[in-house]
Design a protein that fits this description.
The complex is a heterodimer of chains A (190) and B (76). Helix content of chain A is 57%, strand content 2%. Chain A contains seven helices and two strands. Chain A has helices at residues 2-42, 47-50, 79-88, 97-107, 112-115, 121-146, 157-169, and strands spanning 182-183, 188-189. A two-stranded antiparallel sheet of chain A has the order 1-2. In chain A, helix 1 (2-42) packs antiparallel against helix 6. Chain A is elongated. By secondary structure, chain B is an all-alpha fold. Chain B contains two helices and no strands. The radius of gyration of chain B is 30 Å and the shape is rod-shaped. In chain B, 0% of the residues are buried. Chain A binds chain B through residues 166, 169-171, 174-176, 180, 184, and chain B through 42, 45-46, 49, 58, 61-62, 65-67.
Chain lengths: 190, 76
């Protein structure tokens, strides 16, 4: 029978492909993982991931929808930074532009412009999506061969033709629908 | 640094005064279009169908085709 032959062929192909490419796939997967983690590390180092962080205390995030995070970026200030903070308590017109920028950098890690920098992460995401969709296709193919029950006889062309004839005989939707398109005198579609 | 004070009140009212008449108008247009595009042709189609409808003839045709359980085609 046709289905059994397809099944055996598919199984053999899967085994061959799995044997040859499994090493390649494993290498590609680990490569993708290492590059993404290397990319993360080469970004501005995130203080949250280097040591175990206490999530019960206020944290700092660079997020587009949170302009003022729960705490300032820099906790421990050097003596120079502390004196700058003291100067901040006075009139701001006395701060130079460099001091203003330095104070900003004390409170915040990245500016909105820096946060909005385009990244290449989407390529990994889209690639991963396609990869798993393809894997799902293989799974579905295996299911089609080994799991699906036999095809119902109502799908055969002969059965469908008899079904159509019966619908016309019963005058299904004779006013605006199915049977209204059939010319009963001539025995053909209008 | 002396900009004019922006509008602080009546924003929803202004939006409604602009959009509600348009919304009502478009809905009315949609309803009229549906009435004359769909329901009137459909009523006419039904009226025309039943003007020339012979129920007995249709019944006999269906009977001969063998779709009924209570009546058999005249051959059997």
């Amino acid at each position: 029978m046709k289905e059994n032959e397809w099944g055996r062929l598919a199984n053999k192909m899967l085994q061959l492909i799995a044997g040859r490419v499994s090493s390649l796939v494993a290498r590609r997967a680990t490569l993708a993982l290492t590059t993404s983690s290397a990319r993360m590390a080469s970004h501005a180092p995130d203080p949250e991931v280097t040591e175990a962080v206490d999530m019960s205390r206020p944290m700092y995030w660079d997020r587009l929808d949170t302009p003022l995070p729960d705490k300032l970026y820099k906790d421990e200030l050097s003596a120079a930074e502390k004196s700058l903070k003291e100067k901040e308590k006075g009139p701001w017109s006395q701060l130079t532009n460099e001091e203003k920028i330095a104070l900003y950098r004390l409170s915040f890690h990245q500016t909105y412009a820096e946060m909005n920098q385009p990244k290449s992460e989407w390529k990994t995401v889209v690639g991963g999506i396609f990869f798993f969709v393809g894997f799902t296709a293989l799974v579905v193919w295996w299911q089609r061969v080994y799991v699906y029950p036999p095809r119902p006889r109502t799908f055969d062309d002969e059965w469908q033709a008899k079904q159509l004839q019966r619908m016309l005989d019963m005058r299904i939707n004779p006013i605006e629908g199915f049977s209204s398109k059939w010319d009963y005198e001539k025995g053909q579609w209008k | 640094m002396s900009l004019p004070k922006p509008l602080m009140r009546g924003l929803l009212g202004k939006r409604l005064r602009f959009h509600l008449p348009i919304a009502f108008g478009l809905s009315l247009v949609a309803a009229i279009a549906f009435k004359y595009g769909v329901t009137e042709p459909r009523k006419k189609a039904y009226a025309d169908f039943y003007k020339q409808y012979d129920a007995v003839k249709e019944f006999n045709a269906m009977k001969e085709a063998g779709v009924f359980e209570s009546v058999q085609p005249s051959g059997e």
